[in-house]
Amino acid sequence: MAKAALFVPCFVNSIYPNVALATLKILQDLGFEVEYPPNQTCCGQPFFNSGFIKEAKELAQNFVKNFKNYDYIIAPSGSCISMVKVHYRELLPPKEFEDISKKSFEICEFLHDVAKVKELNVSFPHTVALHQSCHGLRELELGVSSELNLPYNSKVLNLLNLVKDIKIVPLKNSDECCGFGGTFSINESELSVKMGRDKLANFKASGAQFLVGYDNSCLMHLASLDPNLKSLHVVEILAGAANETL
Hints:
With 246 residues, the chain is an alpha/beta fold.
């Protein structure tokens, strides 16, 4: 049997543990045996983005140490998995990078491309709009960008459409950055806030009850601008866990 490891990013572990539990639940429901390597820590993205390459490299090496013996590495974060699959190229030897990159997956990517889920026995009788986060959209190709004048296939929407009773409505400029961008929200706080408010205005105009996404960092940023925002990680809906917390 394939060995799967659950990678829980820092902010998910600290602020959104329900998202990690929902990820574990859906993988176990699908029959996967999942382990949580206890010595895992940050993927190194904050250091890397801030120019602290030595520190980022140490965290990348630690990631490899913790996860190298698994067949799949799965996380509920497009941003962190993008760091591993794309930017570890600059931090690891080529062979190590290729080995760790090819078996690392964002949860929706894994469900769609590896598990090839075609049916979900869950219901979510609410209206949702999908925010597409930058890393998942542009580096993991989880969705669709209006920048591309081509037919598209959205992995996340395909999965959400398997949920019974859900209604998905369009979100204007769904592929535009919410303004978080990690350290960008600190270094360019006024611009970050303006971008976030634009995203929230589009969400309110959609008429949806819930804003859903595949990166809690984006949802966290938007919730900081509107404490009344109802938001969920996609996997909470797919796992049937969202109904338990509403």
